[in-house]
Amino acid sequence: MMPVYRDGELVPRMILNLCVAYDHRLVDGAVGARFTNEIVKVLEDFQGMFLGL
Fold first, then answer.
1. Is the dihedral of CA 25, 31, 37, 39 positive or negative?
2. Block means of pLDDT (10 residues each) for the chain, length 53 residues?
3. Which of 4, 18, 43, 46 satisfies CB 3.0 to 4.6 Å to 13 for a cystine?
4. Domain-wise residue ranges, the chain
5. Does residue 12 contact residue 1 with C-beta atoms inside 8 Å?
C-alpha cells in the first residue's frame, strides 16, 4: 500500500512495481513500450479481463 494523490486528497492504493527489460538488438524500444503499456492496461482492468468487458 502506498499513498497516491487522487482528486485532491491522498488515498491508500495497492501498487505493483513492474519491470520489463528488452534486448534492443532484437526488439525496438517503441514496440517494447507499447507491449508494456498493454500489460499495464490489462492489469489495471483485471476484472474486465476475466469478464470479457
1. negative
2. 90 86 87 89 78 66
3. 4
4. 16-53
5. yes
